[in-house]
Write a structure and sequence with these properties.
- The chain is mainly α.
- It has one domain.
- Helices cover 60% and strands 10% of the residues.
- The protein has a three-stranded mixed beta sheet with strand order 3-5-4. The protein has a two-stranded antiparallel sheet with strand order 1-2. A two-stranded antiparallel sheet has the order 6-7.
- A hairpin with a 6-residue loop joins strand 1 and strand 2.
- Helix 1 packs antiparallel against helix 7.
- The radius of gyration is 22 Å and the shape is globular.
- It starts with a helix and ends with a strand.
């Protein structure tokens, strides 16, 4: 009877943490269960973004700053056009795109929900040209479009509910202390594994979508392979069971697999025929012809 009670309470736990609104990710079509609204996520995002920008140091390199904003806006325009065509005009209206280059030598960039994207100066010597920068920005834009932050926040809430309910289940079923400790450890371990896998799935999805977004904006998606190979040389990520990013080798392999799809969206643009190139000296400069 005790084990039967535990079984039914566990089923109840699964039902409770499975509730939410079903959303479908553009491009990939993957379904996701969200228990937080866009408004909640955007309010929190804008608050955190403002706090970050108050402490961040904007780049003093005007050419690089203008390049990041130019490439970013070109991508944003292409993405908004795509969302409008596929019946997601309401979602497209929620983005307030902003692209900033900040003084930070980390090889990184990040995106906040609602289209607030920050690029670190340290990644420019790795991108080397505007097309590769478009791959980075496309990846970050994809996180916003796929509502990955809302999904992770929903996931965190579900895990919190699940762990709390399972703890009550264990006590209510009068399990021994050793069994309860084992259940708790197993729950935490499973949660950690699932969260890492979930992050890898999101990162891979952003790679896929970002590749296509760059192509939509007129940037050659083929450059993604050499860019991620350069990132691998920087030690960008090793993968593994608990890693929240795919391995470098897996990333390049997947991009090569997605290239035929991305190339269907690619139309060479006059604005991308003379990309800027990065001077990898301490003072990063971009030399590009203005149109």
């Amino acid at each position: 009877m005790k084990h039967l009670k535990l079984f039914f309470l566990s089923i109840l736990t699964t039902i409770l943490v499975g509730c939410g609104t079903t959303n479908y990710v553009p491009i990939t079509g993957r379904s996701q269960s969200l228990i937080v609204s866009d408004e909640e996520v955007l309010t929190l995002s804008y608050q955190q973004y403002q706090q970050y920008m108050q402490s961040a140091k904007p780049s003093t390199n005007a050419a690089n700053t203008e390049m990041v904003r130019r490439v970013g806006q070109r991508l944003a325009n292409a993405v908004v056009s795509y969302l409008n065509k596929v019946g997601l005009a309401d979602d497209a209206k929620k983005y307030a795109w902003e692209f900033n280059l900040v003084q930070n030598q980390q090889v990184n960039a990040f995106c906040m929900p609602g289209g607030k994207i920050v690029v670190y100066e340290g990644i420019l010597p790795v991108t080397r040209d505007e097309a590769s920068l478009a791959i980075v920005l496309g990846h970050e834009i994809a996180h916003a479009v796929a509502k990955h932050s809302a999904e992770r926040l929903s996931n965190a809430y579900k895990q919190q509910y699940g762990v709390s309910i399972l703890g009550a289940v264990a006590q209510g079923a009068k399990l021994g202390e050793g069994t309860q400790a084992l259940l708790s450890l197993g729950t935490q371990l499973g949660s950690s594994l699932w969260t890492s896998g979930f992050s890898r799935k999101q990162e891979s999805e952003a790679d896929h979508m970002g590749l296509i977004f760059a192509a939509m904006a007129g940037y050659d998606p083929n450059v993604a392979v050499s860019f991620w190979q350069r990132m691998a040389a920087q030690g960008s990520g090793s993968g593994g069971l608990f890693s929240d990013h795919p391995s470098d080798a897996k990333r390049v392999q997947d991009i090569q697999k997605w290239l035929p799809e991305a190339l269907k969206y690619y139309k060479k643009s006059a604005a991308t025929t003379t990309p800027g190139t990065v001077n990898t000296t301490k003072t990063i400069k971009i030399s590009s012809k203005k149109k």
